[in-house]
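Researcher: Sequence recovery benchmark, item below. Answer with residues only.
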């Protein structure tokens, strides 16, 4: 049966776009909505180009989760994908979509997770701590920030002259290569 996805993103939305392109021809999965808390984020432009409806909401509307829930229900959203979504997901939303909210995080959780750990902050800390590897974590979202059950981790080596820019690039490549197929596989398993 067709599963409908809503993607939540707060910034550039390059992962969101990659996911939309991946499922563009799929008869099993459809991205029906892009949700953002940032009216002026690049994701809004990308969504328009992709011809996917956009919903902009405030932090209050997210936490209140009444109208937002109605909207998600009215279009039959089955699974929510967080792709660079930087607000904390409220408990009401987690309870409404148990094991149906999937997040990507640009580190090997539980390392470099939690409050303040996003984007360059993570890569900077990883390099400063002289880690020998980093990577991505795709996981279900639960009540505790960055602590939900892992779906997939993929790794990359840190070279001796690694910079935030080169590490960002390595992480992005992993995200683009693995996130859409991990979503697809997880959705298939949920349907069985
Ligand atoms: C991605 O690297 C994603 O892993 C990260 O934000 C970036 C969004 O990039 N998410 C987090 O840090 C969540 N804590 P994008 O907007 O270009 O897809």
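Model:
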């Amino acid at each position: 049966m067709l599963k409908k996805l809503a993607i939540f993103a707060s910034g550039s939305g390059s992962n969101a776009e990659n996911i939309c392109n991946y499922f563009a021809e799929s008869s099993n999965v459809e991205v029906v909505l892009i949700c953002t808390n940032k009216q002026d984020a690049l994701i809004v432009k990308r969504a328009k180009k992709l011809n996917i409806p956009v919903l902009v909401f405030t932090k209050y509307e997210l936490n209140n989760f009444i109208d937002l829930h109605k909207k998600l229900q009215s279009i039959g959203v089955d699974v929510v994908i967080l792709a660079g979504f930087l607000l904390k997901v409220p408990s009401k939303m987690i309870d409404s979509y148990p094991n149906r909210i999937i997040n990507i995080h640009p580190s090997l959780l539980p390392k470099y997770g939690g409050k303040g750990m996003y984007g360059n902050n993570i890569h900077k800390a990883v390099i400063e701590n002289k880690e020998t590897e980093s990577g991505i974590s795709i996981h279900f979202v639960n009540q505790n920030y960055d602590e939900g059950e892992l779906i997939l981790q993929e790794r990359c080596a840190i070279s001796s002259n690694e910079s935030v820019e080169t590490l960002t690039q390595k992480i992005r490549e992993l995200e683009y290569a693995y996130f859409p197929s991990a979503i697809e596989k997880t959705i298939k398993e949920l349907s069985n």
